[in-house]
Amino acid sequence: MQYFARYEVRGVKVEISTVERQVDSDAMECVGRGPWEHCVWIVCGSHQVPAVRLELRLATELLRDRADRYEPLLDHMSAHGCDPDLLHRALRDQGVPADRQRLAWDRLAI
């Protein structure tokens, strides 16, 4: 089962998605326990909202070969850092091809 919602909040498109399926990995973006265990809390007005860690999102976009999505993530993470252990698990567990894994590691200089 997938849960998905799309909103526009003060001109910003916000999408929320999760898939309720058990997996052994904690490094998947939309399934299993990963999105809940590895999240960052974003202040949204008077609320705090959990958002998926960029390491998990990056692996998904690399897997989908969506450069328009993974390039900005790589730029941000190279400037602000990342959790290399989580990223390694996400790349491996999501089955990202070796050439795109190398691209990520080269750009992140880890």
Q: Can you count the helices?
A: 5
The gross shape turns out to be: globular
Q: What is the CA–CA distance across the termini?
A: 36 Å
Number of strands: 4
The side-by-side strand order for the widest beta sheet comes to 1-2
Fold blueprint:
Layout: E1 2-9, E2 12-19, H1 34-37, E3 39-44, E4 47-52, H2 54-63, H3 67-80, H4 84-93, H5 98-108
Antiparallel strand pairs: 1-2, 3-4
Considering the chains and any ligands shown, give keywords for the structure.
5 helices, two-stranded antiparallel sheet, alpha+beta, 4 strands, globular, 110 residues
Task: Provide structural commentary.
- It contains 5 helices and 4 strands; from the N terminus they run ββαββαααα.
- The chain is α+β, with helices and mostly antiparallel strands and 110 residues long.
- β1 and β2 (12-19) form a beta hairpin.
- α2 (54-63) packs antiparallel against α3 (67-80) and α2 (54-63) packs parallel to α4 (84-93).
- The longest helix is centred in the C-terminal third of the chain and has 14 residues, at 67-80.
- The radius of gyration is 14 Å and the shape is globular.
- It starts with a strand and ends with a helix.
Quick recap of the structure?
With about 110 residues, the protein is of the alpha+beta class. It has one domain (about 1-110).
